[in-house]
Design brief:
The chain is an alpha/beta fold. The protein contains 12 helices and 14 strands. Helices cover 30% and strands 12% of the residues. The longest helix is centred in the C-terminal third of the chain and has 20 residues, at 328-347. The radius of gyration is 21 Å and the shape is globular. Residues 30-65 have a biased composition (Low complexity). Residues 1-18 form the signal peptide.
C-alpha cells in the first residue's frame, strides 16, 4: 500500500487518546498507482474462461460441508476447494488452564511488488509457525486500463489515493494470495481507494450505503479478476472469497462507526479499524469482534505507541518516509524493543492477544520490516505462543465461555493472573 495511515502516537503513559499525524496521511506514490476502479457487478453474468490453468487445490477428502469436488465459481476467478488447510481446531479452556498467547501480524494492502515483501514474509511465516492476516486492497487486482470500473464514494470515477498495480504485480499478487491461503493465512480486506480525511471523501465521512458500495466493489474486484484482467493462463484463487472474507481494516482507521453495521450485515466476524486501545482482551462491538491497534510501551520512556509500523515512523521521522540514515539503527532498535516489550507485558501477564499492523514498505531504509521480522523470529516458536490470523483468534474467542472472557477483560495487561480462579 502506498498510502500512509493516519495512525497515532500516544505521548503519555496511560493515556488512551491518540494524536493523529497529518490529516491526509498520504505518502508519495511509487509502486502501482492507484486511481480507482469499479468492479463488474457481482450479479452480472461473466464468461467462463477457456481452459483456465489448473487450480492449486489442496488434497482433501469430503467433509460434512464439502462433497470433495473442486468447483470453479463465477468467471473462474475463484474456486471452492474445500475447507482451508492448516487450520487449528479452537478448543474451550479447561478449568485452571492458561490461555495461549496469541500474536497477530497483519498486513495492509497485500501487494506483491518489486521488493517481493509479500512472498518474503509469507515464507518467513512458514518457517516460524506463524499464520497471518493479509488485508487485500481490491484495486491491486484491477488493471489501470479498467480504472473507471471503480466508483469510489464522494470521489470521481476511477480515482484513488494509492497506485494501481502493473500487470506483473497483479499476477504476482494473485500467486501470493493463492499460496498464502494454502499456507493457512487469512485474506481479509483493506477495501479499495484508500481515501482518508480531511473532508470531503475520507472513510470517516462515508454513510452506511457508501461503505456498502465500497465493500461490494472490493469483493467484486477479487471475484472478477479474470474478466477484468483478461488473464486466462492463471489458476483461480483456491477459495470462495464471498465466504472466506470475514474481516477487514478501514484505510487510515477511519469510519468504523458506519462501517460496523455494514460488516455485520455481510456476515463479518471482526473488524480491525479501531484507532487504538490498551492491551486488553477483545470485546464485541455491535455484534462484531473489535480488534484494535494497541498501545505498546516504549522502553526507557514514559510513552506508548500504537502497534503499527507507520505510527513508529511518525514518531521518529515525522511526515517523511525517508529520514536521517544516521538514525536508522536506533529507530529500528526502538521499534523492535517496543514490540517485544508489548509482547512480554502480556505473555507474562494477562495473556491478552497482541496485534501488530504492518505495510509492505521500505520506509526509512526498511527498518520496520527488519524489526517485525526479528519479532516474528523471536516470539512465534516460544512455548504457549500462537502466531495466528485474526480469523483464528475470533474462532478461539467464540469457543470460550463468555463468563471467562468477561473475567479476562478485567485484567490489566501486565497483571499476573490466578488462572485457577479465573478459568472455571
Amino acid at each position: 500500500m502506498r498510502t500512509a495511515r493516519g495512525v497515532t502516537r500516544v505521548l503519555t503513559m496511560g493515556v488512551a487518546s491518540a494524536l493523529v499525524l497529518g490529516p491526509g496521511c498520504s505518502t508519495p506514490n511509487s509502486r502501482p498507482t492507484a486511481t480507482g476502479t469499479t468492479p463488474a457487478s457481482p450479479t452480472s453474468a461473466s464468461p467462463t474462461p477457456s481452459a483456465p490453468a489448473e487450480t492449486p487445490a489442496p488434497s482433501q477428502t469430503p467433509t460434512p460441508t464439502w462433497d470433495g469436488q473442486v468447483k470453479l465459481l463465477g468467471d473462474g476467478s475463484t474456486s471452492d476447494t474445500g475447507p482451508q488447510p492448516k487450520q487449528p481446531k479452537p478448543e474451550r479452556l479447561k478449568p485452571g488452564e492458561k490461555p495461549p498467547q496469541f500474536v497477530v501480524f497483519s498486513w495492509d494492502g497485500a501487494l506483491e511488488g518489486d521488493d517481493r515483501l509479500f512472498s518474503s514474509f509469507r515464507k518467513l511465516g512458514v518457517e516460524n509457525n506463524a499464520q497471518m492476516t493479509f488485508f487485500l486492497s481490491g484495486l491491486y487486482l484491477l488493471p489501470k486500463s479498467k480504472r473507471t470500473l471503480y466508483r469510489p464514494p464522494k470521489h470521481d470515477e476511477g480515482s484513488a489515493s494509492i497506485d494501481f498495480a502493473t500487470n506483473t504485480h497483479i499476477k504476482d499478487t494473485l500467486e501470493q494470495l493463492r499460496l498464502a491461503w494454502l499456507d493457512g493465512n487469512e485474506i481479509g480486506t483493506h477495501f479499495n481507494g484508500h481515501f482518508c480525511g480531511p473532508k470531503p471523501g475520507g472513510g470517516g465521512d462515508w454513510s452506511n450505503e457508501e461503505w456498502t458500495s465500497e465493500l461490494d466493489q472490493a469483493i467484486s474486484f477479487v471475484t472478477n479478476w479474470r474478466t477484468n484482467t483478461g488473464y486466462k493462463d492463471l489458476p483461480p484463487l483456491p477459495f470462495d472469497y464471498t465466504k472466506e472474507l470475514v474481516g477487514g481494516r478501514a484505510p487510515c482507521l477511519e469510519g468504523q462507526k458506519n462501517l460496523l453495521p455494514v460488516e455485520k450485515a455481510k456476515g463479518f466476524r471482526y473488524d480491525a479499524s479501531s484507532p487504538g486501545e490498551f492491551q486488553v482482551w477483545p470485546a464485541k462491538k455491535e455484534g462484531v469482534w473489535n480488534f484494535p491497534l494497541q498501545l505498546l510501551p516504549n522502553p526507557g520512556t514514559s510513552s506508548q505507541n500504537l502497534s503499527m509500523d507507520f505510527n513508529y515512523l511518525a514518531g521518529q521521522s515525522g511526515t517523511t518516509t525517508d529520514g536521517d540514515p544516521k538514525k536508522f539503527d536506533a529507530w529500528e532498535k526502538a521499534t523492535r524493543d517496543s514490540y517485544l516489550a508489548g509482547f512480554e507485558r502480556v505473555y507474562n501477564g494477562s495473556r491478552a492477544p497482541l496485534f501488530i499492523g504492518n505495510h509492505f514498505e521500505d520506509w526509512n531504509g526498511g527498518i520496520y520490516m527488519q524489526a517485525v521480522e526479528d519479532v516474528i523470529k523471536s516470539v512465534c516458536k516460544r512455548e504457549e505462543v500462537r502466531c495466528a490470523s485474526f480469523r483464528q483468534v475470533a474462532d478461539w474467542l467464540d469457543a470460550q465461555d463468555p463468563k471467562v472472557l468477561d473475567q479476562l477483560r478485567r485484567l490489566d495487561p501486565a497483571q499476573p493472573a490466578d488462572w485457577s480462579r479465573l478459568v472455571k
